[in-house]
Amino acid sequence: MDRAQVISSKIKNDLTLIEETIVKTLVGGEKRLGETALATLKAGGKRLRPALLLIAGQVGSYDLEKLVPAAAAVELIHMASLVHDDILDGAETRRGIPTVNSLWGDQIAVTTGDFLFAHAFVLLAKIGEPRVTDLACSAALALSLGELHQMQTAFKSDQSLNDYLSKIFNKTAILFSASCEIGALLSGASVDEIRRLAEYGENLGMAFQIYDDILDIEGRTDELGKPIGIDLKDGTMTMPIIYALEETGGDTRLCSVIENTAPSEREVDDAIQLILSTNAIERTKREARKYAQLAIDAVKHISSKEAQTDLTAIGKFVVARYN
Amino acid sequence: MDRAQVISSKIKNDLTLIEETIVKTLVGGEKRLGETALATLKAGGKRLRPALLLIAGQVGSYDLEKLVPAAAAVELIHMASLVHDDILDGAETRRGIPTVNSLWGDQIAVTTGDFLFAHAFVLLAKIGEPRVTDLACSAALALSLGELHQMQTAFKSDQSLNDYLSKIFNKTAILFSASCEIGALLSGASVDEIRRLAEYGENLGMAFQIYDDILDIEGRTDELGKPIGIDLKDGTMTMPIIYALEETGGDTRLCSVIENTAPSEREVDDAIQLILSTNAIERTKREARKYAQLAIDAVKHISSKEAQTDLTAIGKFVVARYN
After folding, report:
1. Rounded to whole angstroms, how far apart are CA atoms B252 and B243?
2. Which of A157, B24, B111, B255 is deepest in the core (most CB within 10 A)?
3. What whole-number distance in Å separates Cα of residue B149 and Cα of residue A179?
4. B134 CB near a chain A CB, below 8 Å?
5. Which pairs with CB-CB distance under 8 Å and at least 24 residues apart come from A86-95?
6. Is A128 on the interface with B (CB under 8 A)?
């Protein structure tokens, strides 16, 4: 299933405005300085966060003038976090395209991430809605908290499901939730609808990240645009790994792959096969679908049918995609 | 001369509130996650930017409730940029204390910087003054622009004075200016006084950075808390180097140290001696004093005598300090 099939053509059309705004923002000063940041934009992506923001913006009165910079800002925050994450992971490619750190080195990548973050906050500041700025900044803070948490627990196999859920809540769910809440806020939606949209985003983000972690085990490199088994290599405990350990009574080979800071390809492959041989993926998919359903349920009674249709389709999409 | 001698005891007293606010902000969530960021705070610093913000806040009506989080935010932005800069420079110590990257590695340092930036923006968002958020975010953007510019021109000896001035404007002057302007804005100062304070900050920042670049040539490691000659090692062209090249008709040994990505200690020492043998330091000091004087002149007629006294003392201090 492709993102193109799940979002209405109106929103798809407005998403091109986000793309244009980001380009204009990044090359606004000196083209040369925006070059590395633009490479990140050109590397593509699903643009899910700005899409959610625009869709949520239909709940009240759809005000493109405010929604466009806000949607560009949430995507810039996401892009910035990807550029910095790729340094941390030493990632060579993302979506099949070389990363900033692999093209220009870690130093340029650190500053490119800062440049993207700063542009996001400048865009937000210009909207002049303190609550919107607060939501986006808190989401950026949560991203760094989730990342710090992940680094501090890397290569440790004795992590609980709650550790994992709290990490992905910070790393993914909060920005999804903020995107939806900002869209609703800027459209002047009611307090109740704003709350429903935030709840949708939070649950969708959880479903999205859990499904992402499934793809890292059972996905295909050619479809993902990046190698699989990255979490195992990085010593990052995810839900399928936690369940597989549970089902195997703490398989020592699997534990040692997690605890090994440089496992071989063979060891990672074996660990993947081991996980696939258990019921872990099926149980994890069930959890992802549970969160997706909670998201869909949260917007069952919102006033905009258009928004509800798109949000429901996205809820189904995130737990049935290839990448 | 010590900072302690130049700032009035009232402001020094209120600066302790900034320190407390930063600590409370960083350990607010999980103490463990704030640990690396707190290390940066404990490494000390002159706290010049928050001091400027508080002093400027005396021009109108001094409102600590707004000034304290804003002053904490500008210091957090500065701290974040230092943590990221230390990764770029591979710096082992700062102010005589080990850097985050040397203690915990580059990965933790990338995220610690992001964590500090995000906390700054959350604090700013909560103040709820869009113009203040805009100023601080634009300053953060300028920091990354200045850093990108510096990286792209590293190890190139054919740089003009204008290249240098534009770099330090972004890297230092804009955040100094924003700190002063934010203080004045939050105190409800008049448009004219806000402009004067911003002008003061900009010129003070230029003077400060030029003098910093002098200290990197003629300072003493034990006084600076960091080695000297860092700019020469990093291939960063500064005003004393540009003037020394001018005075020696482009000395080839000096050029080759700049262009060398890994010059020996001996080559760096020789380059320092060469610069010291010219009139470059004296000419650069004259420029630094010129900017400091422009700063002092900008606040000659502001309505708060207390602010004027402190700002004038700081103007004199930045071009006569040891570190």
Report:
1. 14
2. B111
3. 32
4. yes
5. A87/A113, A87/B106, A87/B107, A87/B110, A88/A147, A88/A151, A88/B107, A88/B110, A88/B111, A89/A230, A89/A234, A91/A226, A91/A230, A93/A225, A93/A226, A94/A43, A94/A225, A94/A226, A95/A43, A95/A44, A95/A45, A95/A225, A95/A226, A95/A323
6. yes
Q: Are the beta carbons of A108 and B30 separated by less than 8 Å?
A: no
In Å, how far are A293, B73, B126, B171, B309 from B79, measured between CA atoms?
43, 10, 20, 13, 27
Is the pLDDT higher at B128 or at A323? B128
pLDDT digits (tens, 9 = 90+) for B34-85: 788 888 888 888 899 999 999 999 999 999 999 999 999 999 999 999 999 9
Smallest Cα–Cα separation from B276: which of B323, B207, B220?
Answer: B220
What is the rounded distance in angstroms from the CA atom of residue A231 to the CA atom of residue B31?
26
Cβ pair A138:B122 closer than 8 A: yes
Chain A 212-241, CB below 8 Å of chain B: which residues?
none
Q: Would you call A118 and B144 a contact, using CB atoms and an 8 Å cutoff?
A: yes
Residues in contact with B45: Cβ distance below 8 Å, sequence separation at least 6, in sequence order: B75, B78, B79, B95
ipTM of the complex: 0.89
Residue with tokens 């704003």: A194
Whole-structure pTM value: 0.92
Q: Which residues of A26-172 form beta strands (DSSP E)?
A: 93-94, 97-98
Residues in chain A: 323
The shortest C-alpha distance from B320 to chain A (Å) reads 32
Separation between Cα atoms, residue B150 and residue B145, nearest integer Å: 8
Q: How many CB atoms lie within 10 A of CB A289?
A: 18
Cβ atoms of A36 and A96 within 8 Å: the answer is no
Per-residue pLDDT tens digits for A253-276: 999 999 999 999 999 999 999 999
In contact, A184 and A57? CB cutoff 8 Å: yes
Contacts with A, B 15-44, CB within 8 Å: 29-30, 32-33, 36
* Strand, coil or helix: A31: helix
> Is A111 part of the contact surface with chain B (CB cutoff 8 Å)?
yes
Segment (H or E) for A3: helix A3-6
Partnered with residue A94 across adjacent β-strands are A97
Nearest to A160 by CA among A233, A232, A239: A239
Contact A128/B130, CB-based, under 8 Å?
A: yes
> Which of A88, A89, A107 is best to mutate for the B interface (most B CBs within 10 A)?
A107
- Domains in chain A, please, with CATH? 3-317 (1.10.600.10)
Chain A partners within 8 Å of B125 (Cβ): 130, 133-134, 137-138
